[in-house]
Amino acid sequence: MTDLDQLNQKLESLKEAGRRVEQQMSGLGEMKEQLGGIEVRTASDDRSITVVAGPGGVTDIQLNQDALRRSPSQLSGAIMTTLREAVAEAARQQADVVQEFLPDSDVRERVLRTQQEMQDPTSTSTRTAPPPVVDDLDDEMPDSFLDGGRDR
């Protein structure tokens, strides 16, 4: 194989790689469009509260007259329950879209596992506690005239 043949072969490989990147980029645009179109509308059990959620979070909360007949604590509890359900469903739908475009990822499984852990605090969690905070700033920071001239 001549040098010219090798160069042509490399050029064709680069062109093919470019076509694959273009396909992936167009897929990402479609994924972004689908994600932007997600809107979940969830109602409370008695239909007195409606929460609308999407990729950016909660976009609307609607209360009817029946909701306003509740005590403040009942109302806030019902709003929070409905809000959590709407946000969780929106997250699941978003994960489904991402999973469709990135089939080798485990995004849907991770979202479902996280939601399960949040709903059931007694479930075994794979999360670990954050590392302890260590205050060694004195060792890393230069002496200051504000500290009364300590050890110079």
For this entry, give a set of tags.
single chain, 152 residues, mainly alpha, Ybab, Chain: A, 3-stranded antiparallel beta sheet, 4 helices, 53% helix
CATH topology name of the domain at 14-118, in short, is Ybab, Chain: A
The mean pLDDT is: 81
> How would a textbook summarize the main sheet?
3 strands, antiparallel
CATH class of the domain at 14-118: Alpha Beta
With helices defined by DSSP (H or I, 4 residues minimum), what is the helix count?
A: 4
Report helical residue fraction. 40-55%
Q: Determine the N-to-C terminus distance.
A: 71 Å
What structural class do you assign from the helix and strand content?
A: mainly alpha
- From the 3D coordinates, which CATH architecture of the domain at 14-118 would you assign? 2-Layer Sandwich
Unreliable stretches covering 5 or more consecutive residues: 125-131, 133-147
Question: Overall 3D geometry?
Answer: elongated
CATH superfamily of the domain at 14-118: Nucleoid-associated protein YbaB-like domain
**Radius of gyration using CA atoms only:** 27 Å
**Fraction in beta strands:** 5-15%
Order of helices and strands: HEEEHHH
